[in-house]
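In the previous chapter we treated chains in isolation. Here, by contrast, the input contains two separate entities that must be folded as one system, with a combined length of 233 residues.
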Amino acid sequence: GAGVSQSPSNKVTEKGKDVELRCDPISGHTALYWYRQSLGQGLEFLIYFQGNSAPDKSGLPSDRFSAERTGGSVSTLTIQRTQQEDSAVYLCASSLRNGRTSGTSSYNEQFFGPGTRLTVL
Amino acid sequence: SQQGEEDPQALSIQEGENATMNCSYKTSINNLQWYRQNSGRGLVHLILIRSNEREKHSGRLRVTLDTSKKSSSLLITASRAADTASYFCAPFSGGGADGLTFGKGTHLIIQP
């Protein structure tokens, strides 16, 4: 597709269950990002991938959160033993390359997917 | 990455008027980006301004950057109903974390 896609669009789960969220970045984009947006809050950075490796996991809120990316494309964000405070919209974004700049190079804009709305009951 | 703080939190103006929203940040940046989020189209990149630039234009958008004051402003001229959305700034420092951090945004409502 032309843009970043995410699935499912909505997920309702019971407290304690595991959930897996999927992100398909734009073809050719090497950098992939996960964010979380809680109700009434700004976007919170979770994790960043460059290719298949995740050099920056600083935003993951707890060890219940993990993410992987295979083949330099699709990424999955897994939340184990979900809690009610995990309820949020989870957004994925991709960019042509990572945010490092050098010389006159510019940081490439991030293209966001529509998000997955997670509700933990 | 650092978080930008948008001001005001909410803004309501009449269609055709200009809308100005501001962003402040704390540490030096490499560039600063503005994004828009509405229910129809999700989060969309609007414009990027580099630290060595003071002003940038894109259509009806005008962004300024004052690195001495660590602030940026986004001006939307001749506003339209379709401009109703939340606007976020994302200052990027270029070191450490690569992800962007957004604040709570400015919620702009354009009254017909």
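The two ends of chain B are 38 Å apart (CA to CA). Chain B is about 0% helix and 55% strand. Compare these points with the single-chain example from earlier in the chapter.
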